[in-house]
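Most newcomers find our protein records easier to grasp once they have seen one. A record pairs a protein's sequence with a compact description of its fold. An example says more than a description, so a record of this kind follows:
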Amino acid sequence: MKVALASDHAGYEVKESLKPLLRELGLDYVDFGTHSTQSVDYPDFARLVAESIRRGDSDQGVLVCGSGAGMAIAANKVPGIRAVVAWNAEIARLAREHNDANVLAIGARTTPPDEIERIVRAWFSATFAGGRHRARVEKIEAMERVQSSS
């Protein structure tokens, strides 16, 4: 699995701390930036990750900003992206299993550091359950097609 990884300035240190964990989990990743704590605009980095997934260059994405919310909002503007903010491992697991979410957004300023590792582990150990959830995800995809054609 290839993971697209990015942050803004508020999430830079957490993003960097995730790299050894991703390697431990056997995941390849591409770091789309930012590469410092200098102030940047989070939508630029969310877009890079989302478009990498949309093109099929990456399978999953991880975004880190202050709250996770801005990154998730921006990433969700790209068709085919289902980004969620996970504040604990249960939310991460459910988002993958029930919603086939493909982008994990984490709040660096709002999530306890010890919880972040649990969130990431839960995210990457979970898989989409399909079944009754498939029809719901298909409805989301249909909504995107309607929006794209208008």
Observations:
- The CA atoms of residues 11 and 65 lie 4 Å apart.
- Helices lie at 12-24, 42-55, 69-75, 89-99, 113-125, 132-149.
- The longest strand covers residues 2-7.
- The beta strands are 2-7, 28-31, 60-65, 83-85, 103-107.
